[in-house]
Amino acid sequence: MVDRKDIGSWLSGPDTSNISKYPGERLGLPETGHGSMARAGRRILAICIDWALSYLIAAAFFHSDSLAILAVFAVEQMVLVGTLGYSIGHRVMGIQVTRLDGGPAGLLAGVVRAVLVCLVIPAVIADADHRGLHDRAMKTMLVRR
User: Fold this and answer.
1) Which residues face 141 on adjacent strands?
2) Cα dihedral sign, 54-133-113-81
3) What is the pLDDT of residues 88-139, one digit of tens each?
4) Fewer CB within 10 A of the terminal residue: the chain, N end or C end?
5) What residue numbers bound the domain in which 47 lies?
C-alpha cells in the first residue's frame, strides 16, 4: 500500500542540493568582486563596444562592408583575447578571459572563441555559470578583473 512517505518525495519538488547559489560557485569562484564570473550586462556591453569599434574601423577603411565589420571584429577578438586575455570592450568593462585553472587563455583559445562568437549561437547558449558554448569548448571563463 502507498502511504504519504512514498508520495512525499515528488510533492516536495525536485532535489535542489546540487544547484549552485550563484554563477561560478561550482568553479570555486567568489560570488562578487575580483575573480567572480562576469554577469550578462558587462558581457553585452563589452561586445557592443567591440562591435562599435569594428564598425568604425570598417567604415573608415572598407566603406562599412558587413563582412569587413565581422572580419575586423574577429581579428580583434583573436589577437587581443589570445595575447592579452581581453578585448577593448572587455578592458573597458573590467572583465577578462582566463582558463579554468586561472592561467591566460592563450592564442588557440582566442582563435576558437572568436570563430564561435562570430557564429552567435554558441555565445548565446550558456550554462548555470554563465559560460557560453565557446567558453566551454576552450575551458575558459570570463571573470571580473
Assistant:
1) 98
2) positive
3) 999 999 999 999 998 999 999 999 999 999 998 888 898 888 899 999 999 9
4) N
5) 33-144
